Amino acid sequence: MFVKKIDTTVKGLVQMIKDGELRLPEMQRRYVWTASRVRDLLDSLYRGYPSGMILVWETDREMPSRNLSIAQGESPFKGHKLLLDGQQRLTSLTAILCGEPIVARGRKRPIEVLFNLDHPDGPPSDVADIDEDNVDSDDTDGANGDATERLTVNEQLKQRTFVVANRVLLEDPTWVSVSDVFGQKKTDGELLMRLIKDLADPRFNKFSQRLQALRKIADYQYVMNVLDKELSYEEVANIFVRVNSLGVKLRGSDLALAQITSRWPESLALFESFQDECEASGFAIDLGLLARALVVFTAGQSRFRVVSKLSADQLKAGWEDTKKALRFSIGFLRNNAGIEVPELLSSTLFVITVGAFARSRKYSLSAEEQAGLKRWLYAACGRGHYSGSSETKLDADLNTINRGGGTEQLLDTLRQRFGRVEVSAADLAGRGQQSSWFGIVYLALKAKGAFDWKTGLTLSCQHPGKAPGIDYRHIFPKAVLTKAAFSKAEIHELANLAFCNVPDRREANKKPEKYLPAVLAAQGEAALKTQCIPTDPTFWKTEEFRTFLALRREALADAVNGLLVPVIDETPVPVESLIGRGESERLEFKSSARWDAREKRPNKVLEGVVAKTVAGFLNAKGGSLLIGVDDEGQVLGIEPDCRTFSKRKDSDGFQQFLLNLLLQTLDPGKEACSSNVSIEFAKVEDKEVCKVDVRPSRKPVYVVEGNQKLFYVRTGNTTRDFNMKETVEYIKGRWAD
User: Fold this and answer.
1) How many CB atoms neighbour CB 554 within 10 A?
2) Are 526 and 411 within 8 A, CB to CB?
3) Residue 5: helix, strand or coil by DSSP?
4) 393: left (phi over 0), alpha (psi -120 to 50) or beta
5) In a domain, 569, yes or no
6) At what angle do helices 312-331 and 252-263 cross, to 10 degrees?
7) Are residues 697 and 620 in the same domain?
């Protein structure tokens, strides 16, 4: 028989942990429970509800193991029992019963849960958590807002038996610390003395009985299943994976880590050391991402199911690639893309994709590749590219990269999925702090020079003296808008959020018409303009709130598109240098504008190709067309074209021909050519080359072919014709007005 069952108590299990008799195998993940999960566990045990079983492995062999996230003593039977299932529950109970903090990666995190002496009788009442703007942590059960809101919250909390401690409830004698009850340092009288002054008070017996019932949690009976010591580590790892895959206790990455560590002992210490390295640089990543990255850089795809086929040697080699790729990726994200913390990403999978792209380029990116990668990163983040079916999308991107595809091919994937890359004001309507656009809007405003109104310091996610992350304030306060009957979606919309380094809660309820004049006086118009806030005081009034939102959405969309659609470089570049760069998203070569060297005659088709290329640049980000240079960069010159003209057979004649061609072929031709197209000539290798510089158009430009009007867009180093659906979607996003 490979499993024996032992009945034991919470108190007995806690003692095993404190004595060091019960430890964790290396395959186990770290402690991840929030205080609210601990609260719910205590409530279940207090009521005698089922709470699962405990699974341990008894072994006499030396096995990779580690302490739980709680202080443990040393035992002569060190590693004698390894905890496979129940870590989160037993760590939580040990912390509560012993009144000790959780210790994770060198940091102590106290867990304090309060018991309601005057809780209602009967089954638990599920009370919805209250959404508070000013709560210090998402893992509290109370409010730190104004007195009116606090009263409402506390009235609801009275329906609960256990809550996570907050400052308000700690002052209420009805609530006692669960750890104090188990600490045996205070008698019932001492615990109740703040609430009951006289032992004759009939409530004393009621509350005292409830304290005794609470202490009985220590006697709660668990069934501990003990695996036989004859089992191998790898067999135990398989049991661990099977047990945890049957429920929702562990993520796929946790199960993959278990398989990896079973094949590669001591590997978890290496992963955690790399985690610490990343966190020290201000870019914390979790083990799940590391596991995914290890699979990607070992197997070339992201599915965890391949882990079972990877040997220890393959994993070790893959780990070296993984570290190099992730180090480059984090450096690029922080230093090139301005992404200081992972919270700015809508998915941490972007860390892997950026690393994979860099690896495919042997960690040497050209200026154009860097710009393209940033553009794809911002667009994909904003669009929530890796939300839902993330493995499928990640594998598709990896396949594109592994086949040699560049950033424009990655952007094409986004266009195929979303219709366009650029953002419109409509995309931001109703989007709040949880939106995938949140971090990108922050980056866009930071790029405009946005700063903290209070201090005047540039925005930063790593401001000294506060936890890393994005801080913001509501421009129109929640309390004011709630009173005026605006919806939650409107109140919390991105267009109503201004970013800062440290929120000033003292001004949280002031109307913008009251505090924005002071901001203007102290910091000037730049304080509002860099945050895309209208400077006209008319729109700072509550009755103009919806107009304010509409105006700011437009301004925010323009700011984001400043990241997604970079302005064409105005710095003159010699034609010789352009030829040396080769064709790209913004550079195209054409041997001729009309002379067909193969057929030895003028060819109207070639004229149409030139017009389509110019239209493609106009409808995209602009660019340069070199006529008289073939695809390989060989200089042919425009002389063959000039010889076909009936009158002036020189560059002046060529310019007149080209302008007439564009005016007749493009719609609107005159407007497009007069403001967005410039033509010049240069001598290269004693031959004359025509350079057509094209700026992005302010409106769609079509190519007229007979009775048809066709729409072309420059994508990558090609010019694509869009079908009707693609055209509508592209125009809708590119020219939102």
Assistant:
1) 17
2) no
3) strand
4) alpha
5) no
6) 130
7) yes
Band the pLDDT of 245: cuts 50, 70, 90: low
Average pLDDT along the chain: 85
Residue with tokens 């995914």: 292
User: Do 140 and 288 belong to one domain?
Assistant: no
**195 inside domain:** yes
Q: Record the tokens describing residue 175, joined without a space.
A: 């609530």
**Cα 730 from chain centre:** 25
- Owning domain of residue 163: 1-250
What pTM does this model have?
Answer: 0.57
The three-class DSSP label of residue 237 is: helix
Per the structure block, which two tokens stand in for 365?
A: 């990116």
Task: Identify the burial level of 720 via C-beta atoms within 10 angstroms of its C-beta, where 0-12 means exposed, 13-18 middle and 19 or more buried.
Answer: middle
Give me the amino acid identity at 406. Answer: G
- pLDDT tens column, 23-56: 888 777 778 888 888 999 999 999 999 888 899 8
In a domain, 336, yes or no: yes
Residue with the larger pLDDT of the pair 577 and 494: 494
The pairing of strands 623-627 and 587-590 is parallel
Is residue 449 classed as helix, strand or coil in its secondary structure? coil
Q: Which residue has the tokens 């929530």?
A: 384
DSSP 356-420: HHHHHTTT---HHHHHHHHHHHHHHHHTTTTSSSHHHHHHHHHHHHHTT--HHHHHHHHHHHHS-
How far is CA 66 from its chain centroid? 31
**CB atoms < 10 A from the CB of 348, how many?**
18
* Alpha carbon 186 to chain centroid, angstroms: 47
